[in-house]
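Re: Re: ligand-bound prediction request (bumping)

Still looking for help on this. To restate: I need the protein modeled with iron/sulfur cluster bound, output as structure tokens. Inputs repeated here so nobody has to scroll up.
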Amino acid sequence: MKRINEIFESLQGEGFHTGTAAVFVRFSGCNLRCPFCDTQHETYTEMSEEDIARKVSQYKAPWVILTGGEPSLQATETLVERFHAWGKRVAMETNGTHAVPTNLDWLTLSPKEGKDPVLTQADEVKVVYQAGVDVERWCREIRADHYFLQPCSCRNTQEVVRYILEHPYWRLSLQTHKYIGIE
Ligand code: SF4
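Reply:
Sorry for the wait, this slipped through. Here it is.
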């Protein structure tokens, strides 16, 4: 059984797939305690993989986004296979401190300071920008096709813009869902 916080359909608000319709499967629980964590993920309902896949299949969105909390603590290759069987593509957003299923279609790695990732490769790296923290190490240590910097809870956007202008291999990721008032 998996501990599921919520399953809902919306548009991906952040990163490379911004604006794309997706079903979000939010797993409960995380192995980190980031001071800026603004995700309410602790409450949960226990669901079987079959029930999760059936629920997800009711939505039209082509993507399933496994998120949390920390989805890698619970997501398995068999769960990903079930989504594939319904014709979905599967993405995961992880802090990178734990191995992930090998059959994902997209991996977003959001490394957190103080807990180095075990993963060194991803489709995109998405870093929450905090002044004074060395974000360049993630370009050196993680191989990815896209590198995104994201303001911390929409607060330091101008600072992030200035940083990207000085380091233009980064791109800006905004939490657009917060700006337009969707989940
Ligand atoms: S890794 Fe993500 S979910 Fe976990 S505490 Fe940090 S911000 Fe929250």
